[in-house]
Specification:
Among the domains are: 51 residues, Dna Ligase, domain 1 (2-Layer Sandwich), CATH 3.30.1490; 121 residues. The chain is built from 4 helices and 12 strands; from the N terminus they run αββαββααββββββββ. The strands form 2 sheets. It has an 8-stranded antiparallel beta barrel. Strand 8 and strand 9 form a beta hairpin. It is elongated and about 140 Å long. The relative contact order is 0.08.
Length: 249
């Protein structure tokens, strides 16, 4: 039995060796190696989270103020406090205020952040418009006029109307030419327009375009340009001739 087993094994080994040396033999596919064409893919890893927003610097400290009210220093005050005190009329534009970090007390209106808290008033009126409004009304005065060597007194009564027109009278009184003859009076009725020009503070130029009417004579048209100054609320003075007009009530 043993001899038969060896005989069966030997031919099988020889057959295997012959097969391996045969040119038609096929390689062992199971033992072939596959060469990769490139590097392996990257691992699928989630990107790191974005950095969180860093907090900003702390807010700057708010400026503090002190105000001189009724002879006492009130403070520290915030702008909200000052706004409230302005509304209560405890702080005005002229109130002295000290801002923390400054050297001196100044008027409230000179500190920019406080000045804008005051209510806005109307724009300033020009000198020309201010004086025009001042002149509107009834005025009287007296001056002298010399014609042909004769000096006569002139009483002026004029009303300057708001619409730029004027009306009034001039009463001319001439001295008596001789004893026993009374002085002569001539009343000239005037009408026309008036305009303020070249106004500056309390001085101005007055331009009057008038017509004068006398009994039995044709109307006389004249333009008068004169310089005036405001003396007080009820008086103006002619700077060329020196006479004054007074407001009539």
């Amino acid at each position: 039995m043993l001899g038969l087993a060896l005989a069966a094994i030997v031919p099988s080994a020889a057959l295997a060796e012959k097969t391996a040396s045969s040119p038609d033999a096929k390689p062992n596919v199971e033992k072939a190696q596959v060469i990769p064409s490139g590097p392996p893919p990257l691992p699928k890893v989630a990107p790191p989270p974005l950095p969180t927003k860093q907090p900003g610097p702390p807010p700057l400290p708010k400026a503090q103020f002190w105000a001189a009210i009724d002879g006492q220093q009130k403070g520290p005050l915030t702008l909200a406090d000052i706004k409230r005190m302005i509304q209560e009329k405890r702080i005005t534009k002229d109130t002295l205020v000290w801002k923390e970090g400054t050297k001196t007390w100044v008027e409230a209106q000179k500190i920019p952040e406080i000045a804008k808290l005051f209510p806005k008033g109307p724009p300033p009126i020009s000198d020309k418009l201010r004086i025009k409004r001042f002149l509107v009304g009834h005025w009287t005065g007296e001056t002298q006029l010399t014609l042909g060597g004769v000096t006569e007194s002139v009483l002026i009564d004029v009303t300057y109307h708001e619409d730029g027109t004027l009306s009034g009278t001039q009463t001319h009184t001439s001295p008596s030419p001789m004893e026993g003859i009374p002085p002569s009076n001539v009343v000239v009725v005037v009408e026309g327009t008036w305009e303020v020009k070249a106004a500056s503070k309390d001085t101005f130029t007055l331009v009057e375009k008038v017509k004068g009417y006398m009994p039995g004579m044709p109307a006389i048209s004249e333009t008068h340009t004169s310089r005036w100054e405001i003396v007080d609320n009820d008086t103006i003075r002619n700077l060329e001739k020196g006479y004054e007009l007074h407001r009539a009530y």
